[in-house]
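SAMPLE LOG
Freezer: B-3
Tube label: C17
Construct: single chain, 271 aa
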Amino acid sequence: MKKLILISLFLCGFCSAYSQQDCCDRVEKQALVIDSLQNKVIKPLENEVSKLQEQIGGLAEQIAELNQQLSEKDEQISAEKQKHEQELREEKGKNEALENFFNIYKNKNFDDLIKTSTKLSVQRDMQLVGDDAEVSPVLLDLEIYFNAEELLTKRFNATQINNARRQLNQINRQSALFNQLKENVEYYKDFNDELKRTIEKLVDLDRRKVADGDVELQKLKFQEIISELSNYMYNYYDYGNYPYLSDIVLEIIKRKQPNADADISDILSRL
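STRUCTURE (predicted):
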């Protein structure tokens, strides 16, 4: 019996020792497996996670940069849109102003256009109008008018006057001012020649009579001078339409009033 008990205890001890050894072996194997998993799986996964986190950080920066670029692009598009809208408004305003400008020349009569225009304004407006079929002919006629009118402020030139007459005769406008100018140009030579004859009479008077500082003789001679000029102004009462000639008449009076003997022969060379 004792042997049986001892054998049983021995077997139990042996089994217990064997079980403990087996358990240790399994623990060691599990540790090896865990180490293997740590090295082969977990660490690579951790590395991949770390790389992914870095990529995510880079993507976040790129997204922020893209958002900034989108914001700037939106602002640029908004500014361009506002600029375009402003240009459209300005263009519309210009078109309306240009239309109003065209209507002035289309709707006003020729006399009113003459009164409210100058040679310079007409030349400026011709550049704006271009070859508009309605307005351009009006401006061309106004330019011819002012060019012809300007000749009356200058010394008589037969060639220029004849050219002006030809151009004026080609214009068909209902206008009192235009008709008057045509007449003035037509008779410029007559007014010029008669003034020349009048001055020749005064030059002859200077040769025949000399006041020589005498008050009474000065008065009498000046009256005779005024009489000759008055005859011219009476018979050619429209001489005021010829600025060049009327200025000469005034110059003669200014010279002769203080001194009836003042020489005016040089004026003949200006006619």
